[in-house]
Design goal:
Oligomer: single chain
Distance between the termini: 53 Å
Shape: globular
Strand content: 25-35%
Number of strands: 16
Helix content: 10-25%
Radius of gyration: 26 Å
Structural class: alpha+beta
Largest sheet: 5 strands, antiparallel
Number of helices: 4
């Protein structure tokens, strides 16, 4: 009889999703992972890049000794605001045209200027005997910004990256750093960082009301309050993310024969799903696999938060 001898409970996942992503690599070098791109390719759904993806854990399987570092953009208000500013300008730019938006239109940026289609890793599926098959999207084009000269002259086109300086000379940019641009357009504190307080205030009669000793302690206290701690507790001229050296290290995976050629690290937040994979000290024929275990949630089966 059809339907007999079946479990009492029906499969209840409303959005079945692959949340364990595998990426195959060989040798040393710098590569990148775009979680939204990988999720789209492996789950046959459209995942937007402009959200914060959460990783529960990361694993490395390697045939030899080696180290792989994982980096993301700093998870700070600067990163968030810089992305939102870029997104708003992207929307404003596209509003200049009446062309209908593509079905999979999205604001997609690079982690650093050296990220490209060729060094962004695609997720893998497997056959027996460890044979893998990369699942690449039909199309995943990173955002192109277009700026027009005020006199109607030729336009410049460039991509956007989160971390690092701009690439190319003025009026000839090929990629623009979002955080670098954000920092350059924000007001700075006063040159000395201090509020304007009249110098006579240090000797005001009421201010010296309790000045009962010869060392004029209240004057010293007032001077300390006036002159100290007016500068920002960070480098006001250097935004974290304005340089290629400002990545946040979120994991170091090291494999040796004593640990069975495997390594595991705890999870982290990946702003906009962008991860730098930095493989070090590996021979050109060393094969390795990165496993990224994403947090399950309500955004097409994974947990993510809007910027």
């Amino acid at each position: 009889m059809a339907g007999a001898n079946l479990p009492a409970k029906k499969y209840s996942k409303t959005s079945p999703t692959v949340t364990r992503l595998s990426f195959e690599g060989t040798g040393s070098g710098t590569r990148y992972i775009d979680i939204a791109r990988a999720l789209s390719a492996i789950n046959r759904k459209f995942y937007r890049q402009g959200v914060y993806y959460y990783v529960n854990s990361v694993e490395l399987y390697n045939n030899s000794d080696g180290i792989i570092d994982l980096h993301t953009a700093p998870d700070t208000w600067v990163t968030k605001n810089a992305w939102n500013r870029g997104f708003a300008l992207h929307q404003k730019m596209n509003a200049q045209s009446d062309i209908p938006r593509p079905k999979y239109h999205d604001f997609k940026v690079l982690l650093r200027s050296d990220q490209s289609e060729s060094n962004t890793m695609d997720p893998d599926l497997y056959n027996i005997n460890s044979l893998s098959n990369s699942r690449a999207p039909d199309e995943w084009v990173y955002t192109q910004m277009t700026t027009m000269e005020s006199d109607g002259g030729s336009s410049d086109e460039f991509t956007l990256h989160l971390l690092g300086d701009h690439v190319g000379a003025q009026h000839g940019r090929t990629s623009v750093g979002l955080i670098k641009s954000y920092g350059a357009t924000r007001s700075q504190p006063d040159s000395d960082g201090s509020p304007q307080i009249p110098s006579a205030g240090h000797h005001d009669p009421l201010n010296n009301l309790f000045d009962a000793s010869g060392d004029e302690a209240v004057d010293n206290i007032s001077e300390n309050l006036d002159y100290n701690n007016d500068q920002t507790p960070y480098n006001a001229d250097d935004y974290n993310g304005s340089s290629d050296y400002h990545m946040q290290q979120v994991a170091r995976l090291a494999t040796t024969v004593t640990v069975g050629r495997t390594a595991k690290s705890s999870g982290f937040c990946a702003p906009f799903g962008l991860i730098c994979v930095d493989a070090q000290g590996l021979a050109s024929d060393d094969n390795w696999t990165i496993k990224i275990n994403l947090a399950a949630g309500t955004y097409h089966g994974v947990y993510a938060e809007r910027a």
